[in-house]
Specification:
alpha/beta, Aspartate Aminotransferase, domain 1, binds pyridoxal-5'-phosphate, Aspartate Aminotransferase, domain 2, globular, 2 domains
């Protein structure tokens, strides 16, 4: 049988080692020039006016909510289908999360559900751009404007994704990108916040830097955390940036090869891409009647795959807090039917053909 084919794997080699060596030689291993360089490249790449690096995407979301001055009792609307950190961050920042279902035939928060969940206590919305696609930003931004709500875009999985020609994460008050090891590009752990608002950017910096606006001094204007990045992580990021155009290209190639290779299987579909979205298929996903059964079959053939995110209302840590299955039919259906196929940049065409053939045999 073939060697195990991982569902995802970072592309790490001598290029990262060389950048790491430079930082080690400099002796500045904490946040310093490599971090500033990394942030500057992301300013150009995304078009955001300000970019602030954080230790990871989760601390970045918490820092963003604190900078937006979330207060106890403030409600923040979050999609039910996302990684748990989106929801946790609201609680950890002292707010009250409110779950909204995703839209039918989508992985993204349903604008109609957002409207239905707005109360006098609602302060903001966290749309999540899932799997390298994008939420309906036109409608979400219009709702936010009408109700005077902040928008914090969770673009953890959406490096390189554009909506109407603009990088996601630059539409709301703040946007977050994650560089966890399985993400489109990685710094091992790491995240950045994007904002066009200078005052917010200054607060984001203070919050991650013990409440001071400058490193190296012992005067602290506010009470802050240590959510800093490091130049070791930045070094890995700078190496990854050299590979980014190839990574983005390869992600799309893999997705297109799946679309072609799996066409004509009546039980298998791909999620439609809205016309505004320039997809970067971080994970290549399919929908099938029983995702668990297909995933288990692939495993017996040495092929890694992953189920979709477990709907948040079903999480053991949130049992009973956010209602029942009947409240979230679309998130539940996406979870039951969604499967992420091998999507690593290093996946060879031969390996992918084997995955495709194995799926075809399963449905034959
Ligand atoms: C949608 C989403 N939000 C938040 C996070 C948290 O990011 P991090 O792992 O960098 O803390 C992740 C990923 O890991 C994610 O996928």
């Amino acid at each position: 049988m073939t060697d195990f084919i991982p569902q995802i794997q970072p592309w790490i080699d001598h290029v990262e080692l060389e950048e790491l060596q430079k930082v080690i030689d400099s002796t500045y291993i904490t946040e310093h020039e490599a971090t500033r360089e990394f942030e500057a490249i992301f300013r150009d790449f995304t078009g955001a006016k300000n970019v602030v690096a954080y230790s990871n995407g989760t601390t970045a979301l918490i820092g963003a909510l604190l900078a937006l001055e979330l207060k106890p009792g403030d409600e923040v609307i979050v999609p039910n289908l996302t990684f748990v950190a989106t929801l946790n961050s609201v609680i950890l920042a002292g707010g009250t999360p409110v779950l909204a279902d995703i839209a039918p035939d989508s992985w993204h928060i349903d604008p109609a559900q957002i409207k239905a969940k707005i109360t006098p206590r609602t302060r903001g919305i966290i749309p999540v751009h899932l799997y390298g696609s994008a939420a309906n930003l036109d409608e979400i931004m219009a709702i936010a404007k009408e109700h005077n709500l902040f928008v914090l875009e969770d673009a953890a999985q959406a490096v390189g994704v554009h909506y109407s020609g603009r990088h996601v994460g630059t539409f709301g008050n703040i946007g977050m990108l994650s560089f966890y090891a399985n993400k489109t590009m990685t710094t091992a752990e790491g995240g950045i916040l994007l904002t066009n608002d200078d005052a917010l950017a200054a607060r984001l910096y203070q919050i991650k830097n013990h409440g001071r606006s400058q490193k190296g001094v012992f005067i602290h204007e506010t009470i802050g955390y240590n959510f800093s990045f490091s130049d070791l992580h930045a070094a890995i990021g700078l190496a990854q940036l050299k590979k980014l155009s190839r990574i983005l290209e390869r992600k799309s190639e893999i997705y297109k090869r799946y679309e072609q290779g799996l066409s004509g299987i009546p039980q298998l579909t791909f999620c439609p891409t809205p016309q505004e979205v320039t997809l970067v298929p971080w994970f290549s996903n399919v929908h099938v009647p029983d995702a668990e059964a297909l995933g288990q079959h692939l495993e017996t053939q040495n092929i890694g795959s992953r189920r979709f995110f477990y709907p948040l209302h079903m999480q053991p840590c949130y049992q009973g807090r956010f209602g029942t299955d009947a409240d979230y039919p679309c998130a539940l259906k996406a979870f039951q039917t969604g499967l992420s196929l091998p999507s690593a940049v290093g996946l060879t065409n031969e390996q992918q053909d084997y995955v495709i053939q194995t799926i075809r045999t399963f449905f034959a």
